[in-house]
Amino acid sequence: MEWLNILIVEDETPLAEMHAEFIKQNGGCRQIWLAGTLAQARTMTERFKPDLILLDNFLPDGQGIELLRELTLQGYGGGIVFITAASDMDTVAEALRYGVFDYLIKPLAYDRLAQTLQRFSQRREALKDKARVNQRRIDEMFNTYARGGDQAALPTGIDELTLMKIRALFEDPQVRHTAESVAQQIGLSRTTARRYLEFFSANDQLVAEIIYGKVGRPQRIYRSANND
């Protein structure tokens, strides 16, 4: 994956730091900056010219969609990914209209973010290629993955048997688990357990809640979506 300079625009500092830590641990990042307001984001975008902006919509001095609109009209050459709790169709439609690269709804599934970063990096690499491209290559660049064959095929690294074991842990709607507790009960590494939990979360089978303790990093707690 290409090395990227990334600006994270998020007013909740612990959450912004979680995003940054995840990106650093997964590689592909040269530099990360954090901005907590639209004003800071404007200043840092102009100064550092990041390759990619991870943008929240609800900020103390306005909405991220304003910055997306401004940068698009200014001809900003980088990419923008919305990471926000805003799930209304008007916001989604406007983000698409102004060319957002991806739209991720909070609470963020980090496996999903990893996929987005990889696709963005791949698109940047593809755009550097001066050769002619075929339709499949164009589809990849525009994220229009027309998948043939079995639509229910599981992604790489996700095993059906392990999915069943983890799903069984959440049969009681009142149960709460962390990646650590799932890893201990199933006999997995914490990283692997988190991958499966985020898969369930991305498919709306589990709900991920971020708990901020007095000491240490925020913790992700997972529960069944059936008790909503």
TrEMBL record:
<feature type="domain" description="Response regulatory">
    <location>
        <begin position="5"/>
        <end position="121"/>
    </location>
</feature>
<dbReference type="Pfam" id="PF20714">
    <property type="entry name" value="HTH_64"/>
</dbReference>
<dbReference type="InterPro" id="IPR024187">
    <property type="entry name" value="Sig_transdc_resp-reg_cit/mal"/>
</dbReference>
<keyword id="KW-0238">DNA-binding</keyword>
<keyword id="KW-0804">Transcription</keyword>
<keyword id="KW-0963">Cytoplasm</keyword>
<keyword id="KW-0010">Activator</keyword>
<protein>
    <recommendedName>
        <fullName>Transcriptional regulatory protein</fullName>
    </recommendedName>
</protein>
<keyword id="KW-0902">Two-component regulatory system</keyword>
<dbReference type="InterPro" id="IPR051271">
    <property type="entry name" value="2C-system_Tx_regulators"/>
</dbReference>
<dbReference type="Pfam" id="PF00072">
    <property type="entry name" value="Response_reg"/>
</dbReference>
<dbReference type="InterPro" id="IPR048714">
    <property type="entry name" value="DpiA-like_HTH"/>
</dbReference>
<dbReference type="InterPro" id="IPR011006">
    <property type="entry name" value="CheY-like_superfamily"/>
</dbReference>
<keyword id="KW-0805">Transcription regulation</keyword>
<keyword id="KW-0597">Phosphoprotein</keyword>
<feature type="modified residue" description="4-aspartylphosphate">
    <location>
        <position position="56"/>
    </location>
</feature>
<dbReference type="InterPro" id="IPR001789">
    <property type="entry name" value="Sig_transdc_resp-reg_receiver"/>
</dbReference>
